[in-house]
Prior knowledge:
The protein is mainly beta.
Amino acid sequence: MLREPGRRCLPPSELGAAPRAHSRYDPGSDAGVVCVAGATIASMAAPRSTFPIPAAFPPELLAPGVGANSAAIATVDAGLVSELLEGAMRRVTVGDHDVLVAHTPAGIVAIDDRCPHMSAPLSIGDLDGCVVACPLHEGRFDLCSGEVVQMPTTGGLDAAGQYHPTWSPAGKEPKVDPPGKKAEARRLTRVRRLRYYPVRIVEGRILVDLPETA
Ligand code: FES
């Protein structure tokens, strides 16, 4: 049975354990299906055909609090998969938690709707295949692999702590970062790793597992 969007449901522990294999769920299973009150959905684009399966992702990039042994998980109904065509992104808000649901060529992924650089909403960026471009500093991130495709123009630290200098897009003068606190902040800002939330497709709806506290 599928719950309607916006209705409060029970944690999976009260419904029976969901088959959490980190990167992929059984699309036919309803185990663990719960919805959180107040979830709002904003669609951002509407390109091509559908391929409604959850995309695999590196297991080490699973978000904290939604692993197989996590007790407090709430599953959010992120809307109809038929309304999220390939190439489209959707922002789903639960309380103060914004989630990006994107339909990539590899399937559907869910991550925080916060750029891993300085938290801009990726859902208003551009999705090209698996790569989403941030609207703020031109950082580009591969939603299928979790890799940084292009560091932000501001430079800074990558996830491993390696420093990358500022840069300018092709055809523009190289930027010179003036000294001071702002430059230091940019230099010390680390581009975090993407973190994924498990996705299932159940009865045509996209279900995303979030930590219960989200
Ligand atoms: S906030 Fe996204 S690249 Fe800077």
